[in-house]
Amino acid sequence: MKLLKLLAATTAVAAMLASPAFAQTRIALVVKSLGNGFFDAANKGAQEAAKELGDVEVIYTGPTTATAEAQIEVVNSLIAQQVDAIAISANDPDALVPVLKRAMDRGIKVISWDSGVAPEGRMLHLNPSDVNLIGETIVKLAADYLPEGGDVAILSAASTATNQNAWIEAAKKVIPEKYPNINLVATVYGDDDSVKSTEEARGLISAYPDLKAIIAPTTVGVVAAAQVVTDQDLIGKINVTGLALPSEFKQFIDNGASQAVALWNPIDLGYSAVYLANALVDGEEAKPGATFSIGKVGEVTLDDTNSAAMAAPFQFDKSNIEEFSKIY
């Protein structure tokens, strides 16, 4: 009888260990800061990917403030936990390199996504879209509604944010080439903080009385700027545009503070990041020319910097904001 009980217990334990509930691979999805709707949506996709892959646990984490120092603390904790992979949207491309190199030295696979890390600090990087295309898109969103041109300003996230800085440089390059009547008067930084972004938007409006548009390539900043324009009764005088989550921004399309914004699907971005991190854990090699499956989204091919880009930004306006606000 005791032997039968022992065999039954052993069988039960074996069955539990074989169960998908016991994840074999732990992937940390590290975001710039928690409480950001964009990253919450990315986590939704990440969890979906983990469920599809079947033996993956996604640890959704990040600091409460969008700084490199805070992210370094998070990564050190993940190294101590001996996770299998880290997929990070970085607050600084260089400051995080030493701690991420330490992670890789410990056998942890490291990728960056959304906002990149310098190549020596990661194995591959996933851009949400082509950098130059994003830069041109954010300018075009303003220029389309300024047929005679005019003064515009950029309200970005942190001054060290890899992705925003690259997009802004691309925007500056395209302005004289395709939009010579657009005059970029200033670039300010709200650090992906709603309070600071609001202050910076107010400062732009005060400093530039002829301002016609505010371009915010950050989902936090674009909402803050649109709220300021609404509160100051400047709808129709200053157009707010940039990169926005439809669910967060619909009210400002509806009230006219913005004519149009753009974004890619953050759910797909988080989903794809997990697929790529898992592929590296499974032994696939990140090298120029390598092609990786990203599940239902398709596949990506790495360039000579081990970077890959997803789809072009999608525009949201009065014709479709209602539909997409129900999705993300």
Automatic annotation (TrEMBL):
GO BP terms: rhamnose transmembrane transport
InterPro entries in alphabetical order: Bact_Solute-Bind_Prot2, Peripla_BP_I, RhaS, SBP_2_dom
Gene3D superfamilies to which the protein is assigned, alphabetical: 3.40.50.2300
Main location: periplasm
Domain Periplasmic binding protein intervals: 27-285
Subcellular location: Periplasm
Signal peptide: 1-23
The keyword Phosphoprotein is annotated on this UniProt entry: no
Pfam annotation, one family: Peripla_BP_4
Source taxon at top rank: Bacteria
GO cellular component, one term: outer membrane-bounded periplasmic space
GO MF entry, a single one: carbohydrate binding
Keyword terms: Signal
NCBIfam families for this protein: RhaS
Family: Belongs to the bacterial solute-binding protein 2 family.
Name recorded for this polypeptide: Rhamnose ABC transporter substrate-binding protein
Organism: Devosia oryzisoli
